[in-house]
Amino acid sequence: MTRAIGEAQRRIQAARGEVRGWRARAGDAARRIAEMDRRLAETRAEAAALAGRPEQAAQAVAALAAEAADARVADAAARDAERAGEAAAAAARLRQTQAIEALAVVREARATAAAEADHAARERTALSAQAGERFGGPAAVLPEKAGFAAAEVGPAADEGRAHDRLAAERERLGAVNLVAERELAEIEGERGRTVAERAELGEAVARLRQSIHSLNREGRQRLVAAFEAVDGHFRRLFTTLFAGGEAHLALIDADDPLEAGLEIMAQPPGKRLGSLTLLSGGEQALTAVALVFALFLTSPAPICVLDEVDAPLDDANIERFCDLLDRMAAETATRYLIVTHNAVTMSRMHRLFGVTMVERGVSQLVSVDLAAATRVVS
Question: Does an H or E element contain 303, and which?
């Protein structure tokens, strides 16, 4: 019970404290309301005082705008007047410059004319003196003294210049060459010999060109005939070596046979027709052998040396190569020397030549006649 009473008293005290706080707040609120009422009255009074200011400001702005427009017009007029003044000043300066230049030209012309007049006066005095010394009288009486009209005589300066010019031309001509006629005859004779030699050289050049054309024509004919013969043999030998296929020779890069290059076109069995560079090493070797033998069939030679041509060939192709070699030896009078290390090729030869070393550092040439050895064995 006592605890409840104490708790109630504390609550009462707390409520009293809150009442005092609210009363204090109410006093502050009353003071603030009074302050706000005062400020509201002041604001209303100030608003009433400023009610007419916008119209005044608008009138002032309009007046200032009109003044600014007038100022812009005046500024544009002033700028136009300034540009006109500058143009007029530039024109005046140009006229002044032209006048100064014209004055300088006139002054220079005047000085030149004065110098020429002075020179003419001195020259006239000198000519008068010379005339008096050479012709015995002044220049004024010389026409009558010489017997022609004074109107036919030009100005003294022109006559003097003409005299000087003729004298200079005479000096340039030099002394009279008394042997000129003989020298002219010698030059004419030498010219005639030169013309004759030139004609002979022209004829020689024409004959030489004709000979060259004839040689070129005959060379083309012989080259084409030899090419066709070699091509025919090459086609046949290629087919024999490869047991089929086809090949031919072609002139390329120029229409003139004398300037054209040679291309070997080959088509072994089972392949496409193409250049020699597209074939394998063995095929290239057989093709080259066919071309060499075609050349020997066309124009045989006493000796043919084949160095290791069978190296890239297999056994079957070596047999074909040896068979063709036998045919070539029988059809032509050419002696074939074969440099080889292949046993099959060596077994098909008529005679073998080799080098053996019986002792260290001592080489000995060995020769074997296989045909005789075969007869002895048999």
Answer: strand 303-307
